[in-house]
Design a protein that fits this description.
With 91 residues, the chain is an alpha+beta fold. The chain has helices at residues 4-11, 55-60, 66-73; strands spanning 17-22, 32-35, 38-48, 80-90. It has a four-stranded antiparallel beta sheet. A hairpin with a 2-residue loop joins strand 2 (32-35) and strand 3. The longest helix has 8 residues, at 4-11. It starts with a helix and ends with a strand.
Length: 91
């Protein structure tokens, strides 16, 4: 669910959102997904236009800028853009 370099930052609570390019949503609000010694719980899922994604949003997701984010996010055939907000909890 997260690139390996981002996992500890998600676990620490530093990263609480992620931009995803999918064909269809792959997560549900309220659902929990395992990560390290706990899980992330999705608190919000919002579909946006790619033009809405800024360097600031990319940095909030743990990337240096939009270009850095796109290097990771652009894999597969996904064209729809989603911002996923979440919290990490130990479980």
């Amino acid at each position: 669910m997260f690139a390996k370099p981002l996992r500890e930052r998600v676990r620490s609570g530093e990263i609480t959102s992620s931009v995803r390019l999918w064909l269809t949503p792959r997560v549900k609000v309220g659902a929990r997904y395992p990560l390290l010694d706990g899980f992330v719980e999705v608190t919000r899922l919002q579909e946006v236009d790619l033009a809405d994604i800024t360097d600031e949003i990319a940095r909030e997701g743990g990337f240096a800028d939009l270009e850095d984010l796109m290097k990771t996010a652009r894999h597969g055939r996904g064209e729809r853009v989603f911002i996923v907000d979440f919290v990490f909890a130990r479980g």
